[in-house]
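Open question from group meeting: does this chain pack into something compact, or does most of it stay loose? Before anyone orders reagents, we agreed to write out a predicted structure and look at it together. Recording both the input and the output here so the notebook holds the full record.
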Amino acid sequence: MEIREIKSSLNILTVLQHYNLSANKNGMLKCPFHEDKDPSLKVYTDTNTFNCFGCGKAGDQIEFIQLKENCCKRDAIMKAKTLVNPNEPVEPIKKKSQDKNLLPRIAVLGKVAQDSKASFKRTVKAKDYIRTRKLNPDVLEVGYIGSEFGKKWNEQLKQSALSLGIFKEYKQNIVPKFKNCVLFFTKNEKGQIIDLYGRSINPNGAGKHFYLNGKHQGIYPNYPETKATKIILVESLIDAATLKQQTEIDENYTILSLFGTNGFTLEIETAIKELKELEEVIIFFDGDKAGNEAAIKTAGKLKTINPKLTLSKVETPEEEDINSLLQGHEPEILNHLINERKPISNKTKEQRTDTQAAPEPSQLNTENPDKITYQENQLHFIIWGGIEKENIHRLKINLLVQVKSKDYRYYQDDVNLYSNGQLQRYIKGAAEELETSGTLLKNTIRKLKNQIESYRLTLIEEQRKALAPKPYQMNTAEQKEALRFLKAKNLVKNTMSAISKSGLIGEQQNGLLLFFLYLSRLFEDPLHAIIFGKSGSGKTYLQTKISECLPEESVRTITSLTENTLYYSAKNFWKHKLLLIEDLEGVYNAFLPLREFMSKQSISKLTTDKDAKGNNVQKVLMVEGPICVSGATTKANIYEDNANRSFLLHVDETPNHAKQVMDYQRQLQAGLVNESQQNKYKQLLQNTQRLLKQVRVINPYAPMLDIPECVFKKLRTNMHYLRLIEIITFYHQHQREVKTDKSGKAFITTTPEDIAWANYLIKDSLLRKSDELGGQVRHFFESLKSFADKKEEPKTIYAKEVREAFRMNPMTINRYLRELESRGYIQRNGGNRKTGFEYEIKAWDEYEKLKSGIDILDEILEKVKMKYNSQNKPKAQV
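Structure tokens returned:
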């Protein structure tokens, strides 16, 4: 009896029954292979397989017997025969020593898949990455590995994962190799996970693509069904996932992914070879040189598998792939391109003409970028290690040359093709070693240099395109929805509501102000923001949540910045962009150029470089804005120069806000938060900004406006106030009448409603700029006054009382008290270090007076409204 017959005849439930085991109605039972308190082993009766989510063991009926009897596979097969046919003669089972060092590959990968899938569901940034690829994270079978992955695994499981390449050794620790990666799973013929592909979602990571050790195994997304008639072959797993989520394509075609242009594995070839009803294979590769060349090579392999196959190729637009097409167009474009596919010639290599059979002999062969070859006349060149792209002033390569008739002899050396001296020495040495003409070498190397230069420029351009974010293309429905939002009444109020619905908890006022400050990036002189708060108070959370409501192509997020980084950016890299700094401490050394960039909207630096001949030459580095800068910090008093250029926002650190955030965190963990709804509002706000165009704003009420006398740095603050009103007016451009001045220039005008919103948003910032106390000290002092006010006369307080009531670090309390005392807000009346000092509050109403000074904004607004109403009063009818 063959193994296949045994498996088809033996039900896994029969095997369980033989060992007095039974599964519950959900197919679960306690695993017999490890101590199991709760059922963790799942039985799949449709495939006669099992998988334990606890120890990771998995397999079919025979593998279950093998594990249960602790025997070799042959003995397990003999045992299975007796379960199929009780009359089968029984041979004694030889026990084998169990390998405790490594678990089976399928078992380990099953555990990885289980944990990573759960991690993916919990990780917002992983799901957001999938959404950026226009894929549905709720139906896609993917996982995610973070920094904490596998920490609770036992040592045996870790060692197994290490041997497979899931983990790696780093500084004597075992850490995830696939850290910050979204995982895609390939499967074997039984539908079991047999291999992994990791796509890094960390923009600052060292690489994008991660694989297990050894050769690729399995097929993605699944092995093809035996009755498959039409197959679409794609280059990458993400492209396959993209087609798989298009219902019409998935229903009419079987989709298989290669592992890159050279990833047509023997396993994929064998699987296709066994499809007896297969009629056509459609090759849908990237629209670049590598994709086109790989399509021809793959077609040749398919023709050798089955000469009767119909082979066709999808004409992918230049520099596009399947997933990028979906991101930039309607999904129908994929159907259209597949329907418009072109047949691939069935001629063999021998039947082709000379021009079809091979590329021109003088063409640079860059199929392997680390081993570039070139051949002309009798000379054969190999460039080892690739081409240097970073320094365009030189062309230094490691060049090997052979004469075809003397393959056993070669000459190899480093040479800078732009250095006449090095090139002459190279030609002389090669001519002597190979006994060939120096003139022939010189002329051929000159042609080779021209080819390398063209190739290098192509690489640099591809790199530039890869770094530049692709502009998002809205579809018709998205444009209509965004325009409807911009034209609706109560636009600012609706925007505040949309920001809250996008996932911002509390902080509505700060969130709306940040939204408008970030919108100023579209102006020639943007505004900036600094967010203050204690560690863990939510300042980075506020900044991140608002930035998520901006178009992705407009945001640059950094955690660290050196002084020279800004100067060496591409000239227009920061133009009309938001620079988001997670912690201002990380850019301390770059404060000087950053301040200049914020003020002048451009920076320049005179530096020295070397020309092609090695001479020193002066060079001016210039980077242009405008740029909007936003940063978060815990230190409220050390950024005065930057603060003068920015709006100052202080996060809400009240207990009520903390409770709101914690309630939201609990709901998120319980799966009660509608994240797809949040993403819908983020997308809506992003699209509204994509519809805004440059338009001039005139504020006819500007001469009437003023800011409080108590504000420090009035000159710059006054301009900030006027600019905020301008931004709010600009945001209403789809609701305002476009007028023209005497010179014919178009403009829109400010209304009192715009000024009212600006007053609402700027009051807190003006109050902070008017207050000589920092935000944290002010919060402490106001709490101190409330604490003292509740006491009976005399209303004196002791430092010890404050420490007990406020539960703050004693060093922090002492620092705050000393600052308040030095400024005259409190007075020390007695006490000592042992019993504690006694303090009396001397300034009870100073903050209220400060607030009342800010109220001048409302008084002026009433005058503006009166003027507006008089100007727009309906004329009496005669």
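Observations to bring back to the group:
The longest strand covers residues 602-610.
The chain is about 40% helix and 20% strand.
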